[in-house]
Description:
Layout: H1 12-21, E1 25-29, H2 33-41, E2 46-49, H3 53-56, H4 68-81, E3 86-90, H5 100-114, E4 118-120, H6 128-136, E5 141-146, H7 152-155, H8 165-181, E6 185-189, H9 193-202, E7 207-210, E8 218-221, H10 223-226, H11 244-261
Parallel strand pairs: 1-2, 1-8, 2-3, 3-4, 4-5, 5-6, 6-7, 7-8
Helix pairs in contact: 2-4, 4-5, 5-6
Amino acid sequence: MSTEGKIRAVTTHRLMEMKQRGEKIAMLTAYDFSTARIMDEAGMDVILVGDSAANVMAGFDSTLPITLDQMIYHAQSVVRAVKRALVVVDLPFGTYQGNSKQALESAVRVMKETGASALKLEGGLEIVESVQRILSAGIPIMGHLGLTPQSINKFGTYSVRAREEAEAVKLAEDAMLLERTGCFSVVFEKIPAELAARVSASLTIPTISIGAGGGCDGQVLVVHDMLGITNEFSPRFLRRYADLYGEMTRAFKGYLADVKSGDFPNEGEQY
């Protein structure tokens, strides 16, 4: 059977191959069908249905309030749009920490109801029992270490993590533990670039950076941040690739003016 014209989907195995040959992995968040379709057609490797939806879609101050049902809704919308990228879904706060049975139930729901490819969980040794149980069901897991936003009440701040030696050692140990346990990748968030590069080099699984420097195997940003829709958020690691806040404001004001003046619709814009 001819394979001409077929799209070769990104898999966890392909990400491992990319690390081995030194090809960087590009990852962005998405929460809706239309954005995910454009992102996938542009050639994105990984699309993360992040619990950051709580911030950029719902207006919460943290990721904690978003529910499993809401994450499933967003993931369903994204998966319908995607033909090539690997779709990873965050398990939200309270659905896996401290209870591996609940973790598996949450994971199974997401996979069955969305058709996503993998899940992402925050934490290391503290959640390893949940990781093991989910992996035992054949569900791929991406880890997440460093600044873990679901633990913001413990940290009390969104500042850089693992600057102190003890925390850096624990991060390295947790990363190795997640690899040994069977995770296919791990995200490092807001940790020193030197530490991220060193730990990444010690792992066989790919690492993804958000504010952890260029020494990781890939990068991830929140789509609303890199498109300039959220203009009040400007951490050092963020590069804006558009100013959609400005563009959308101009478009809305132009429409408003045209409607008020009676210019829209004109003769050619009506039946």
